[in-house]
Structures are given as structure tokens and as C-alpha cells.
Amino acid sequence: MGKSAHTHNSVWSKGMMAVIAAQFFSAFGDNALLFATLALLKSQAYPTWSQPVLQMVFVGAYILFAPFVGQIADSFAKGRVMMFANALKLFGAASICFGVNPFVGYTLVGIGAAAYSPAKYGILGELTTGDRLVKANGLMEASTIAAILLGSVAGGVLADWHVLAALGLCALAYAGAVAANLQIPRLAAARPGQSWQLTQMVRSFYRACASLWRDGETRFSLVGTGLFWGAGVTLRFLLVLWVPVALGISDNATPTWLNAMVAVGIVVGAGAASKLVTLETVARCMPAGILVGVAVAIFSLQHALLPACALLLLIGVLGGFFVVPLNALLQERGKRSVGAGNAIAVQNLGENSAMLLMLGIYSLAVLVGAPPVAIGLGFGVLFALAIAALWIWQRRR
User: Fold this and answer.
1) Where are the annotated coiled coils located (predicted)?
2) pTM for the whole thing?
């Protein structure tokens, strides 16, 4: 069925709901798998500094395959690309269940996630347009964060009971995502007939990077989302070490509950952004980004569970309000210039490079013995300064 038959539909269309459901199951699996695999590493006595390395091999797959996944998303029906990517995630999770090295299995999941991301965001612009695209992004982020909320908690709680049961749940979630993908309308490929020669694909990706980086609006979005997700993944690992030191709790479940508080907040923030911010008023989200860093710094100094939960909820609200408009801006501008799939692949390269850099610095800080409270305080201050610098840079431009 042609693309035009589905574009401009309501954000509550059958196709959009299938995308949202597939995203929920896929993101649920991703988040449950992280905490289940961290519990597996702990049970097998891997060193503490190796925990962020697990996420580094995941984001390394995004960076390595960035030149190719955007073209794949634009060359085939995006719903089918999502289905095959989730099938690869299912294979990776199942391999960990059956005793394959967790770093190898998690890398396979990372490759699936790299292929999945440009398709899942790119398809939104094919199912709806304009300001409804901001609302569709809000739904996508809300689905993602609900999955983070439930997946993280399920992974942590089940891992405290039985690690293999937690890993099995992840495989089931990916199977659910594959089933949901089958309900997505088979849209026409956005840019069929492109060359599959390796050097040409790399050159094409480089041109897409250069095109988006030259445009002030998309450059602003790329830097902002990169900083946000790099900070988000680092905070997740920081919580695993911070909880035993600051709160004196050493189970697998508590860090996942605290991550869930951030997830709840992002749902609220994403909903607020879809109501209060349009593509013409994206700059409204910048103060929220600065306040994320301030809140992280204050959070790091807490020693009681209730204020820690409240601050993490606030961090999530501010983060959701900050990142959703930037995603919508990149999709709208990118679709016009280099194609939505290529735009998201470039965004993934930026976000995952930021994650790799921040996780590397975090892992090094842990390796040299820096206290988790000091790491969190420095991290929050640096993030606030970085977003403030980005906002000043954008206003001057």
C-alpha cells in the first residue's frame, strides 16, 4: 500500500498504534535485559567497572552500523525493517539465556537496536505530519518511557528472584514486538533503488551528516539530543553504584525503581511538550535542559529515599519536556533534506558517540575510585553548563 494512503492520519490510527505497541515491547525488552544482564554479571563476579562496558558494546554497534542503517530504513518498508531488527534482538536475548557470553549476546541486541531506531522514528513522519508529528513523538516517548518503567522494574525484581527467569521475560517481550510489527501497514519505501556499494553508502552517510550539521536547526537538535541521552544512560549506571553508598541498599530492585521514577517523569514531560511546544517554539525546551543538570547535582547529595525519588521524578519531567521537541524538529527538517531514516541514523551516531564518551569517562572514574556522590555532582554541573552553552550558541546564531 502506498505511503500517501496512510500519511495525515490521526495519531490514533491503527498503523500508529501498532508502531507504539511494537515500540513498547521492544523497549520493555531492552530495559529488562539491561538489568537482568547486570545481575548476571554480578552473579558471575565480573568487576564493577565492567558494568558500563556492557552498555558500551551496545552503543558501539550503533556507531559501527550508523552509515548503513539509515539507508536500510529508507530502502525498505519500515515496518518490516522493525520486525527483522526485533527478531535479531530476540536472538541475542535468547543466546544469553542459553549461556552465550553476555557481552556477545548484548552486542547482537545492540545491532538489532541500531537497525530498529531509524525505522521506528522515520515511520512516524510517514504516518502523520506537521504538529501532529510532535504529538506522535510524544506518544512514542510515552510508550518508550512506560516500557522503561515496567521493563526496568521487572528486570530488577525478577533478577533478585531468578536471573534466568528475568532473561526469559526479555526474550518474550521481543517476540511480542515482532508480532506487533506484523500489524503495521506495509508503506512504500521512502528512497528505493539506492546503491549498496560499501564505499558509496559511507560517502552517502557522510554527506547526510554534513548536510544536517551545516543546517543550524538540525545541528542544534543533534547536539541537544546527544547530550541528553548520553547523560541519561550515565545516570542509569550511576544509580547502580549510588544506591548502596547513599541509601545503604544493595539489592537489584531499588536502582530499577529509581530509574522508574525518571521514566514516569519523562512521560509527564513528553505530554507537556506535545501540548506547549511546536516546531516554531522549540527554544522553550532549553531552560528545562539546564534544570536537568541542576536537579542531578542536588539529587547526588541526598541520603534518604523519599527526596531522592522526588528529584528523580523532576529530572524525568524536565528531560521529557527538553528532548521531545528536539526529536520532532530533527525528523521534520531531516525528512525534507536527507530522508527521515538517514536523519535518525545521523542522530543515533551523535547520541551514541555521546553515550560512549560519557560512559567511558564514568567507567574511568569508577576504575580510579571516585566516590559515586562526587561523580553525580560533577556530572550534573557539567550537564547544566553544556546545555546553557548550547542555548547561548543557538540564540547568537
Assistant:
1) none
2) 0.75
